Amino acid sequence: MGLFDLFKRKNRKGNARVPALILQLESGGPAAREEAASGLGALGREAGTAGDALTAALADEKKQVRLCAADALIKVGGDLQKAMDTLTALLEDTDAEVRRNAAVQIGRSGERAGPAAPALARVLGDREESVVQAAINALLQVGAAAVPALIEVLRSDDDRARHHAVIAVTRIAPMSIPTFVELTGDSDNTLRYIGALGLADLTPAEENLDLVLDALRDDDWLFRAWAASTLRLFGAEVAEAASPCLEAALEDEHPEVKKAAEEALKKIKGTR
Question: What domains, with CATH codes, occur in the chain?
């Protein structure tokens, strides 16, 4: 038997499993249903005929079955929107592991998961670090389409979420550069600072310096800290313009701003 015959035989065997897995998904116990959904997902496009059964399983009483069914539905080429709706709902589950897995699965769809970006961005305020990291990674996989959702978080009052949004927005490079360039011309100072700081984090250039220094004097501590941290990226060539502002920031009322200013001064001037 040749390799091609073996390949065909393997495919026939895989396809033959689909009806049994669908039956297991529809009539098995909780563990069996979860196993069936995972098995169908592992078959990928070969299990395309399981789309309806997997869609029905999105309403399963057991959240682990819903989670596996949503993941499998995406893998077999089923209804992406329904799968995303289920996964975004699970981002609010009381179980941190479920929230983490939901974020991971959303991220696997990459740019196609753009509509889920606002839900992922809201997770940045989660108290479980593993959930936050999964959400950040998923947002990075979504890419530039996630930037508007991250900007909304940056404009919110949730300090924890905003801190993580900064991390995410500065890592979605370089596809976000056009968005940041556009924001630097906005009449809203908050948006201008987000644009300037995001752009400077990606491609530090002197034309952004004035806006970064303005952000260092903003009323919002997050932008002051972000600006101070960003100034490190410019290097010694901005020492003359940036040093007085950073030295003033050493007296800032917020510890994160002070810390960022100290680190920036060490970098651009070699101070201790």
Answer: 15-78 (1.25.10.10), 81-172 (1.25.10.10)
